[in-house]
Amino acid sequence: MRNIYYFIYICIYECFIESKIMNIDGWISEFERKMIIQRYSPNSIQNYKSAVRAFLQLAERKYCHPMEVKEADIEKYLFWKIESTISEPLIKD
């Protein structure tokens, strides 16, 4: 599971930090392409795209330019996602 968070981090960094404009749909398409090449399952791709899109939408509201996002911001978001997933209570029928 940790490898996917690193992969998401790298993709967010490549797509967001190195870009000059905010183009969420383009970045999501590139992210999806990279995951397909690495042979992730369709369900995994959809889940990870959702997480990346949520970060990019949050960053778009918070920052005026992609260069304002720092590695620490991405790491904090991923840590929050990991922690919130771990602390979610299990629902039993």
Can you give keywords for this protein?
single chain; mainly alpha; 93 residues
Explain how this protein is built.
- With 93 residues, the chain is an all-alpha fold.
- It has one domain.
- Helices cover 72% and strands 0% of the residues.
- It contains four helices and no strands.
- The chain has helices at residues 2-17, 24-37, 42-62, 71-86.
- Helix 1 packs across helix 2 and helix 1 packs antiparallel against helix 4 (71-86).
- The protein is globular, with a radius of gyration of 14 Å.
- The two termini are 26 Å apart.
- The model has no long low-confidence stretch (mean pLDDT 76).
Report the biggest beta sheet as strand number plus sense, adding barrel if it closes: none
| Gap between N and C termini | 26 Å
**Coarse shape:** globular
Helix/strand/pairing category: mainly alpha
Proportion of residues in β-strands: under 5%
* Number of DSSP helical runs: 4
What is the structure about, briefly put?
This protein is mainly alpha-helical and 93 residues long. The chain is built from 4 helices and no strands.
Task: Furnish the topology, listing elements before pairings.
Elements: H1 2-17, H2 24-37, H3 42-62, H4 71-86
